[in-house]
Each structure stands twice: as structure tokens, then as C-alpha cells.
Amino acid sequence: MKLRYFAWLRTRIGRGEETLDPPPEVATVGALIAWLKTLGPGYAAALADSKLVRVAVNQDYVGPDHPIRPDDEIALFPPVTGG
Amino acid sequence: MIRVEEPPFDVGAELGAFGRGDIAVGAVASFVGYVRGAEAGAPALVALTLEHYPGMTERQLAAIEAEARARWPLMDVLVIHRHGRMLPGEPIVLVAVSSAHRQAAFEACEFLMDWLKTKAPFWKLEETSAGAEWVAARASDDAAADRWQKDEP
Q1: Which of B34, B123, B138, B141 to probe by mutation at the A interface, max A CB count within 10 Å?
Q2: Rounded to two decimals, what is the model's pTM?
Q3: Per the domain annotation, does A76 fall within a domain?
């Protein structure tokens, strides 16, 4: 699946996007975040505080129980600060 | 209409053209947000960079416009939001709405800004003499957006 990162999540993880194939038991947004944290210290630092992580699947906001599929585009980013 | 774009826009020209040609329009309300260069107790701002999520930004802004049109009798809606690097004093965002009467125009304009601030995927990076830092979201913005939540039946 395609992962995209923005703002300080992007700088802490060290890239803006990547394609990953999580194991099949990673079936929800919450499980995906838990799995990403195991990929390295940059991921763990970026995702340490779940209150500061927003998730969009295919460009719509979703919660931690939302299911994920291999052809999804999943974006992780901090609370927005536009306007 | 939703416009997400990089170059500075001409506030006077945009507002001058908005709402023209429809004689049913009796009221236009607008909001313009500018890059604030000075704040008490903080180092002076050198520049502000707006990162966004192309595609999702337009999609969320269109959804917010549709919600405003469902709640108030609006004739037209214009949202311009810039991204990229901008300097103190430059405009960042413009929201304008037209309606037959002022109350709908005032309320819809405020609603659009409140929802945009908490839903549109933009992130501000402030550059000062002390370095560059991501702006943290404010609880007061969440509270401003929440007051427009409708109670579920």
C-alpha cells in the first residue's frame, strides 16, 4: 500500500511517501501505526503520541478501527494548521 | 469555487469580481488571512511555508463548501488558499460568500473558516532568526469548529 507522510511526521520519518507491504494480520489503521513504529527509531519518534497523529485513507479522515487494503493510499500527518 | 494555488492573489481584484452579475445577491461577507510577521514575545517571522496534501486539500475544501451550501442559502462561495513559501504581510487565505441577506453571509463565512482551519490538510512551518519550526495546532481552533457541530437526533 502507498503511505504518505506530511509536516513533522514526514521529517521525523525521513521521507514523504513509500510503498509498504505490511503482514496480513495488520488489517486496521491502528494496527498499521503499531506496526510502523517497529520499523525504526524515526517511525517510533514520529508516531509516539497517538493524539498528534491524524489518518486519511484515500483522502478521507478515518479512525483507528478503519480497515486497510493493499491498494489504499494512507496518509499520516499531525493536526492541521492552515488558514 | 475552490482554488489551492501558490502565487499571491490580489484581494481587491478577487473581492471586486465576486458576487457581480447576480442581482439576487444582497450581501457579501469575506475573510482574508495574512502572514503575521510580529507577535509579542516571539522572534520576528522571516517567512511562512504552507505544506499541503494535493488532492485531499481540494477534496476537503469542496466538502466544507458543500456543507456550508446545505446549511445556508448561499449564491456563491469562493475559497482561495495558498501553499508554498510566503512573506509577512502576504495574504494566505480568502473566503467570500454571497447571499440575499447578511446573516447567512456572516455565519457561512465564519463557519467556512472554522472548519477549514481544523479539516483542510495544510501545515505551517515558521522560519524565524531562531530557525524553522512547525506550528502546533490550537485547542481554541477545535473549540471554534465544534460550536458548528449539529446535535445528532
Answers
A1: B123
A2: 0.94
A3: yes
